[in-house]
Amino acid sequence: MKIIKPLLALLLLTPFSLLAQDKIYRTDGEVIEAKVLEIGNQEIKYKLFNNLNGPQYNIYKSAVSKIIYENGTSDSFTITDSKSKVADGKRAQNVFVEIGAQGLLFTANYDTRFSKKRNGIGGRVGFGLLGADGVTLFTLPVSLNYLLGDGKNFFEIGLGATYASLDENSDSEIFGSGSTVIGTMAFMYRLQPVNSGFSFRGGFTPVFNSSGFIPYYAGISLGYTF
């Protein structure tokens, strides 16, 4: 009887000892049985439960969906929220070359948000110089735009004006000859990375002035976001 009682106590305690571990749920579906040591701003430090005397491991919080601790409590980590925190503190800026669109033919441009956000109101300015067959066109596009969306996919609405100077020997239905100011609009898709990287814009950009209106004018741009 003296031996049976300790054995019973050991058997009763065994299931609870097996559950005395933290479980880290990765976003890819893997579950890590661990002992969580520290949760920092960017990383989680832990040791494997089956090797508590072994090395310490680190994992980015963005790769973790939740942690269930040995006492039954839990923490959840939302990837979207993490990205939003990075985005909200960093003003989006872009440099790009544009074919057609508000630059009219071919321009180099700079675009920025007016606050520390990746979306919302902003503006762009650029310049273009193109010559062919003795005809030279200089353009200076300036516009305001508003980005709707989150993450890296946006819809851009813009309104602005482009100064265009065409040499006196040329004549165009929309550009005219000499110098003119052309009104521009933008209804475009914009691919803009959360932090930095390749950017793309494409869509319709109607243009107009006293000489006429082109509703289906369009263009694309390729650039870099930082």
TrEMBL record:
Entry annotated with the keyword Signal: yes
Domain of life: Bacteria
Keyword entries, A-Z: Signal
Signal peptide limits: 1-20
Entry protein name: Outer membrane protein beta-barrel domain-containing protein
Organism: Pelobium manganitolerans
